[in-house]
Amino acid sequence: MDFQIREAIAANLKGNSATDIKEVVEDAINRGEEHLLPGLGVIFEKWWKTADESSKQAMLNNVSTAFAQ
Known about the structure:
sporulation, SspI, Small, acid-soluble spore protein I, single chain
């Protein structure tokens, strides 16, 4: 992934409220367009870098469960 994409997405989301970011995520998922996947990846990467170990483990457990179905 090109770092310009990361920077552009980060700039677009900077200062957004939790509600705003939720709408971005839900819109990207609902639209189902593959070109939106890098944006979701950038959101996840930013979260991962700031999350504590227990939050990361909880996320990993949730993702594992989601893919097990």
